[in-house]
Design goal:
Chain lengths: 339, 339, 339, 339
C-alpha cells in the first residue's frame, strides 16, 4: 500500500464527491489521503463511508501535507487560481476543474506558477474523454474525413439553472459554452481565431434581466482555414442534447445522443424511442473516470497530461470574445483579447 | 379535351424538360400546347415523343398564342424578368424558375407587372413541396415544438458545378443557398432581418479565383426573435446532404436524408447503410410534380399560389446581404439593401 | 403509334385499375386497347378518363382480338387458370396476378398450356421489384454476406380484412403469406423443402370461426441447407410491417420499413418518428410499375420474364404445406404435396 | 465493518473473477471473506490485489465458515448441484451460475435442498438485468403493447467457442440458447409449452462432428397463447447480435444492439456505424453488477430473489425439449420431459 499515489481533494461539492467516489471505486493504486471543504462537518459521514480518513476545513492542510503528491481542485471557481498557485509552489501535481478563472490575468498567473514548479496540470474538460467524442477525434486525426472544413456542435441543456446561479456563473459563454469551445479545439485540431455570436433570450426573460442570454449560435473561424458553429440552448424539452459533426474533404463524422436503452415502442401513435440521457452526470459518467485515469497516468509515467494549461486558457478567451461579439454585434478576433 | 388548361413552356433545358415530362405523366387535364427554346431543332424529337406539337425557337410565339393560359419560364436566369413582364402583360399566369433575377430592381419591375396584370405568379422553390420539409413545416405550424428558437439547415451538394457555371451562377449564395434562404423563411414562418456570413474556399481554389466561395456558415436573425444557421458546401463526398432542424420551446423536429433503400449491410467492417439520394433531381423528384399541381390548382380554383412574388424577392435580398456580409466581414441587415 | 405493344386487361378491380393507370402514366409505347370486367358499365367513366376505348363485359372479346399481344389477368382468383389457358391458346403473352389458383392441378394445367403455347408468362409477385428487397437480393447474390444461413421475413398487415373476405381468401397462408413464401425463395436463391407452422388466432376470434388463423411463425428448411422463418400477423397497430433479414457466413443484410418522411419529433414525451407506410398500395407503389416494365421488356426483347410459372406454383405448394403442418402440428415436406 | 454481509466465492474462473471485482468496486457493505478454486495458487496474486484474504483450494472451507452468510457458485457446471446442496444444508444463501445442471433429477435435488433449508437461491440469468431487456419487460408488463402475440429473440455469438468446449458444453441449446429460453419466459410473462427446433451445422463442420449444431430457429408456443421464435448462430461476422421484439395487440417493442459509440462515418463508401459491443462481457457488463445488487438486497431485506429455482429449472427443460425436437424433427411438449 505504500506504493500508492496519495492525493488530496479540495472542495467536496457535487463534482468533488463524484471524483472521490470514482477514485475509490476504480483506482486501487490511488489513495485519497485527505479532503478539504469549508463545510467540513457536513461531509464527514460521507467521507468516512468511502474510507477517507482526513477531513479538513482548511485546504492549506492538504497543501502542507508533504506526503500528498497531487491535488484535485474542485472548489468554487473564484478560488481555483489561488489554490493552483499554492499547490504548484508546494510541488504538487494539479487537476483543476474548469474554468481556471473568469479573469485572464489570474489564469496566466496560475499557469506561470505551474510552469515554474514543473508540476503536472490538467484541466477538467471531461468531455474529451467521452467515448463518442473521442471516436470523432480519432477518426478525424486518422484522416478518415480528409481536411476538416466544417465543425458543428449542438449543445443544449435539459433545463436552465436557477437564476441565482446564472447571476454568478460568468455568463452562458463561460459557464456552458466553454465546454463546446474546448470541444471544437479538440475536434478540429486547430485554434479558434475569430468568433461571431448570434444570441437571444428566448427561454426565460429573467435570464435576460440577469444580463445573460439563453440561446445562441456562435460562428467560428479556425487557424487551419476550417469554419465552425456551436448552437446552445439552456432548455431543451426533450433533454440534454449533445451532438457534434465534423465535415471534411473526404466525408463527415457525426455523433448523436446516448440513450438509456435502445428500446423502441411501435404503436398507433408513432415509433417512439428513448430521450437522451438526462444530464451531464449521466451522459458523461464514464468520462469523469477516464480523465482521472489519464491524470494519474501522466503523474505515474511522467508524461504530459492530455488537457494542459493552455487548454484551460483558450476556451475562456474564446468565451470572452463570444461575449464581446454579442455585445458589439460584430465578429471578434481572439487576439483582440490576448494582450 | 377542350376543357384542358393549355400551357406553354419557355426553355427546354434540364428543368424545362423535367416539368414537361412530369406534366404529361401526371396531369391529364393540362395540355402543353407549345414549347419554345433557342435550340428548337435540338429538342424536336424529344418534344414530339411526349406529344407536344408546337415547337418554337422564339418564345414570343407562346406569349402571342391567345389559347395559352399559363407559361412556365424555364429559360436562363437573365431572361426571367423580361419574359415575366411580357407574359404578365399578355394576361398569362406564370410559373417562374428561381431566381427571378440577380438584380433587385428588375425583380421588382417583374413583380409590378404581375401585380398590375392580376395574373398568378409562382416561383419554383420546389423544396417547399418536399415530403420531409412539408412535414417539418406542418409540425411547427401545429405548435408541436412551441415557439421556434433555432432553425438549422444543412445543405451540401455532392460535387461542385463546372467552373464555367460558377462564373455565371451569381455566386453560391444566389445560386445554391437561395433555396436554403427560402427554406428558413418557410420553416420559421418569419422573415430574416440580419445575416452574418462565415465563408471560405476549401473545396476548389479555382472557385476562389472565380470570385466565389464553396463553404459557408450563415448565421441568421429572424423577425420573430428566433435565430438560425445554414451551413453549405459545394462538395460532400458522401452525397447530397439535405437536413433541417427546428428547435423550440417544447421540443425539436429534425429531418435526415432520404436514401434509395433502407438496406443495412452488417459485416466485419461495420454496419453500412445507404448514402443519401444522389442529387436534387433524385432527391426532390416528387416535389417538382407537387409544385406543378399546386400551380395548376391555383389557376383552376383561382386561389393564391403557394409561393408568390415576395417569396421570389426575399431570398435574393438575403443572398445579397450574405454576400455583402462576407465581403465586409460584418452582420448585414436585410433592410440595408431594400431601398 | 403503330409500333405500340397492344394489351388487354381482364378484371378492373383495385389491382386491374392500378395497373391500367400505371401503364398509361409510365409506358408511352404500350397501348391498353381494351379492358374487360363483368361490371363493365361501372368502369366505363374511369376507363374513358384514362383513354381506354374498348370496354367489354366478356373477357373473351380480348382473347379473340388478334391485335392484342398480351393480357393482364386481374380477375378473381378462381378464373385465373381458365383465362390463362385460353389466353395461352390464343398465343397471347400473360401477366397473371397471384395466386394462379388454389388447386395445384389447375395451376399445372395452366402452366402446361403456357409452355405449349410458348408465350411469356409472368406472375404478379410485385415485391420482388421493391427497391429494398431487390437490394437485399443483389447483396446476397453478390456474396456480400457469404453463404446464406438464416432468412427471416416479418410480414404483418395493418388490419385484418373483412371476415367475408377471409372466408373466400384461401386462408392466410395462401392469401397473405404467399408473398413471403415467394420472398424467401427470391432472397435465398434456393427452394423450400420443409415447413413447420406455429399459428394461432389472436387478433379476432371470428377469423378462427371462419377456419383460419391470424398470427403465425413459419419455420423453413431450404435445399441449400439454410433455414428460415416468417412471422405474420393480420393486424399490427403501428401499421404495415415489412422487414427482411438474410444472415450468412460473412454478415447480414436487413431492411426496415419505409416511411412517408424522415421527420423525427423530439419532445418531453420521447423521440417520435413516422410509422411505416400505410399498406401495400402505398408501400409497394413503385414495384407495381417496375413489374410491368419487366413484363413488357421480356416481350419486346423476347427474354425470360423475371417471375415465371414455377414461381407461381411453388409458393402455393409451400402455403398448402404450411396449412397441413398447422393442421397436423408436424413439419411437412413440400414433396409430400407434389405428386 | 462488522455489519457487512460476508460472502464466499466458489470458483475463480472468468465469471467468478468478474463477480469478485464487481463486488469490490460496487458494494461497500459486502465483504468477500474467502474465495475457493481448485487452482488456488494461480489466483492468489489476483485475489490479494483486490483485498480478498482467504484463498482456499477446497470450497468446503467456505461451506464450513460459519461467518459466511452467502456463496456465489461459479465453479464448473458439473459441481453446481452438489455445492448447492451442501451450501443450502449449511444454511447459506446461494447465487448459482447457470445452468444448475444438465440433469433434471440433480437440479430437482438441489432445489429441494434449497427449499428445505429456506435459503435464498438466485440463478445467474444476468440478461434479465440488462437495461434494454428490462425496459422491454417493463413496457410489456405496463400493457403498452397490449396482449403479447409474438415474442422474437435474435441471439448470435461473434464466434464459435473452441471445439473442446463444444464437446463438454451440453450442446448449443443448453449452453447458449438457455439464456434465450430464460429471456422469452421473462419477456412473455408466460411459460413455454411446446418447442420445435429447426437447426443445422452451417458454421463449422467440426461442431457437427462433435454432435452439436451451430445455427437454429426455434419455434415456441406459450401457455398464454402467444407464439415465439428464437434464432441462433454461433458465429456472426459483424459481432454479438442480441435483439428482442415483443409484438402484441396494441403494438410492439424492439431493442437493437448496444454499440461502443454513436459515431457514424459518412464517406463515398457509405454511411458506416459501429458494430455491436464485442461479446457478453462487454455487452452485459452492467447486468452482472445489477444481478449482484438484487441478490444482496434479497438477503438484506429478506425478500424473494428476482430469479429463483424454477427459473433455473425451466430453461434446462426447454433446452432438452429443443434438443429432442431437433433429433426427432417434431414439436415436443415440455411436459413430455417433466415426469
Amino acid at each position: 500500500m505504500d506504493n500508492n499515489l496519495k492525493i488530496g481533494i479540495i472542495g467536496a461539492g457535487r463534482i468533488g464527491k463524484l471524483h472521490a467516489e470514482n477514485i475509490v471505486n476504480n483506482f486501487r493504486n490511488v489513495e485519497i489521503k485527505a479532503i478539504a471543504d469549508i463545510f467540513a462537518d457536513k461531509i464527514e459521514d460521507w467521507a468516512k463511508s468511502i474510507g477517507i480518513k482526513n477531513i479538513y476545513k482548511d485546504y492549506k492542510e492538504i497543501i502542507n501535507d508533504e506526503e500528498i503528491e497531487a491535488v484535485l481542485i474542485c472548489s468554487s471557481t473564484d478560488t481555483h487560481a489561488q489554490i493552483t498557485i499554492e499547490a504548484a509552489n508546494a510541488g504538487k501535481h494539479i487537476f483543476c476543474e474548469k474554468p481556471i478563472d473568469f479573469d485572464v490575468k489570474k489564469i496566466k498567473e496560475a499557469l506561470d506558477a505551474v510552469e515554474k514548479a514543473g508540476v503536472k496540470f490538467q484541466i477538467g474538460f471531461n468531455r474529451r474523454f467521452d467515448h463518442n467524442f473521442k471516436k470523432v477525434r480519432e477518426l478525424v486525426q486518422a484522416g478518415k474525413i480528409g481536411d476538416p472544413h466544417i465543425i458543428k456542435v449542438t449543445s443544449r441543456d435539459p433545463q436552465a439553472p436557477p437564476i441565482e446561479y446564472v447571476k454568478v456563473s460568468g455568463g452562458m459563454f463561460i459557464d456552458m459554452t466553454i465546454h463546446d469551445f474546448d470541444m471544437v479545439r479538440y475536434l478540429s485540431g486547430s485554434e479558434v481565431e475569430e468568433v461571431y455570436t448570434n444570441a437571444a433570450v428566448l427561454v426565460d426573460p429573467l435570464i435576460g434581466e440577469a444580463g445573460d442570454v439563453d440561446t445562441a449560435i456562435i460562428s467560428l473561424k479556425f487557424k487551419n482555414g476550417a469554419i465552425g458553429v456551436i448552437d446552445n440552448s439552456r432548455s431543451a424539452a426533450y433533454g440534454y442534447d449533445q451532438r457534434v459533426e465534423v465535415f471534411g474533404s473526404l466525408g463527415a463524422v457525426t455523433v448523436s445522443n446516448d440513450t438509456d436503452t435502445t428500446a423502441v415502442l411501435h404503436t398507433g401513435e408513432g415509433i417512439i424511442s428513448d430521450k437522451p440521457k438526462y444530464f451531464f452526470l449521466e451522459r458523461y459518467k464514464d468520462s469523469f473516470v477516464v480523465e482521472m485515469k489519464e491524470f494519474f497516468d501522466s503523474i505515474i509515467n511522467d508524461t504530459e497530461p492530455p488537457v494542459t494549461g493552455i487548454d484551460g486558457l483558450k476556451p475562456v478567451l474564446i468565451g470572452m470574445a463570444a461575449k464581446k461579439s454579442y455585445e458589439e454585434n460584430r465578429p471578434v478576433r481572439i487576439d483582440e483579447l490576448t494582450l
